[in-house]
Amino acid sequence: MNIFISQLFHLLGVPSSASTGPTSTLIKVDSLTRIQILKNLKESKANLHSLIKLSESLNEITIPEETKTMIDLTLDKINQAIAQAKDIHKSMEFSAQALIYSNKAFFEEKMVQQAYFPNEHKLAVLLPLLGPVCSIMIFGSLKLVKDLKSLNTVLKKKKDE
């Protein structure tokens, strides 16, 4: 069993020699759990920071309610993970949930859509389509005004006769 555990830890990247780390399996598992908690919290924080940078760089972007809810849940789970630091199993659960919620907030469909298709891009796509439609309407309106003027002059001539 010790060989299996040492190979599993080696696969996970845990140091195997006594000089670079603890020899007890329980201590190694405890250390791995604590490291994973920190990684989850760090990744959650990075996701939230990226959302802040995105919303600051794109001023016209609207934050959907789903994203706001996920951000609130993420912050709540981060606080719970920190509060439960003595119970590493609960802390691990809360940090994992915080990571899930932060990923959901960051990759929210409406947010991603707004980030990759801002209003300038929509205008650039629609402008070539609006050009021909607007030109037809403008030239049609000019022809209508011209026809009305000519009709008005014809009516004036008939009135004068």
UniProtKB/TrEMBL annotation:
Give the organism, scientific name. [Candida] subhashii
Q: What is this protein called?
A: Uncharacterized protein
The keyword Glycoprotein is annotated on this UniProt entry = yes
Signal peptide bounds: 1-20
Q: Where is this chain primarily localised?
A: endoplasmic reticulum
- Provide the topology term for how it sits in the membrane: Multi-pass membrane protein
Give the domain of life: Eukaryota
What biological-process terms (Gene Ontology) are attached?
attachment of GPI anchor to protein; GPI anchor biosynthetic process
The top of its lineage is: Eukaryota, Fungi, Dikarya, Ascomycota, Saccharomycotina
UniProt entry keywords in alphabetical sequence:
Endoplasmic reticulum, Glycoprotein, GPI-anchor biosynthesis, Membrane, Signal, Transmembrane, Transmembrane helix
